[in-house]
Specification:
Layout (H helix, E strand, L loop, with lengths): L4 E4 L9 H10 L5 E6 L11 H10 L5 E6 L7 H7 L1 E7 L6 H10 L3 E6 L10 H6 L2 E5 L15 H10 L4 E5 L7 H7 L3 E4 L1 H4 L4 H20 L2
Parallel strand pairs: 1-8, 2-3, 3-4, 4-5, 5-6, 6-7, 7-8
């Protein structure tokens, strides 16, 4: 089974101290940092791009930047994000008609490729060709573009179905994940947990990250016993 990976979302961090915030999460047990790249077109919000990621990478050389590309032209930014130090380039299914072309471009740039689906997108759009080509599939449990939303439980079935079809794939969940809601996601089969508010605003982020990791591992143990 794929290992548990906890990726705090920087959307809930103090952007004025972004590098320090990333270091704080790594110190408290984070595996990846989920970098929310928004272009103001695919989603109405505007956050960061390659120049900011470049400085974060310089300040935090050990960081694994899981770049969630909420952009309207995902092929355009691949090389910039790769040069900035991005490790995972996860683009939205809804943002392009050339999914395999973008995946190949990401791989050619030396990054891992991920594909994301928004709440209104059925998981059936992830064909066997796409699912086998990517390293990770991201199931959004809120609408992309804004932090602090509540998890949409009607999206959980997608995690379960994708895990059934791709048992060894990294499956990421993003949106409204807390210590109360994480279990429904991990029991459905996700192994990569993204959480912003729950981690960055906690008085004890190490305990929250440990709880998320335990939730993934316990769900996997339960599934393996069936």
């Amino acid at each position: 089974m794929p290992k548990a990976i906890i990726a705090p979302s920087v959307l809930a961090s103090n952007f004025g101290e972004l590098s320090a915030e990333c270091k704080r999460m790594i110190k408290n047990g984070a595996d990846w940092l989920h970098m929310d790249v928004m272009d103001g077109h695919f989603v109405p919000n505007l956050t960061m791009g390659a120049p900011i990621l470049t400085w974060v990478k310089r300040d935090v050389p050990e960081i694994y930047m899981d770049c969630h590309m909420m952009v309207s032209d995902p092929a355009r930014w691949v090389n910039d994000i790769a040069r900035a130090g991005g490790r995972m380039y996860c683009f939205h299914y809804e943002a392009t008609d050339d999914h395999m072309g973008v995946i190949q471009k990401v791989r050619d740039a030396g990054m891992k490729a991920g594909i994301a689906i928004s709440p209104d997108t059925p998981c059936t759009v992830i064909t066997d060709e796409i699912g086998n080509a990517v390293d990770m599939i991201l199931v959004m449990t809120v609408y992309p573009g804004q932090g602090g939303q509540k998890l949409k439980p009607e999206c959980i079935y997608k995690i379960r179905e994708i895990r059934r079809r791709f048992p060894d794939k990294d499956i990421e969940v993003d949106g409204g994940v807390t210590q109360d809601t994480v279990h429904s996601c991990t029991e459905a089969g996700c192994n990569v947990v993204v959480a912003g508010t729950a981690t960055f605003t906690s008085d004890d982020p190490a305990a929250v990250i440990a709880d998320f990791r335990a939730s993934v591992e316990n769900a996997q143990l339960k599934a393996s016993a069936l």
